[in-house]
Amino acid sequence: MKRLLLICVLLCVMPLAHAIDPLIFGSDAEEKRFNSLAAELRCLVCQNESLADSSAPLAQDLRRQVKDLMDSGKSNAEIKSYLTDRYGEFVLYQPPFNARTAVLWITPFFVLALGMALSLRALRARRELAANDPDTDLLVARLRLEKENEI
What we know:
Blueprint: H1 2-19, H2 28-40, H3 57-71, H4 76-87, H5 102-132, H6 135-150
């Protein structure tokens, strides 16, 4: 029985041992800087997770690389520049606005404006159809009669 309990505990703990990625920081400020920087960078494998949140092996390697660059005295801008040169602007969660990323920044607003315009057009067409429909008056009169008969 003790052996079975020990096996169950080990099986439950083993996945947690794989997720540990210890990075040793010299100060709390350095750790905050690292966490801030890792939150601004995208995991290249997961694509919808930040570098700080991802447990992918590539993310672990990138975190170590960012830590090494920090230890070598690089600024946040220099680290981002290094990673952007190596992996492209996709590695940044908020890519800068330039000619290559203009579509990414403008498209959501364009789609929103287009959706609003199409919705307004459909509402106006529906109002005009209802206003010009001769059967509308008959329908309203019939509904009033039915309502009066129910009372």
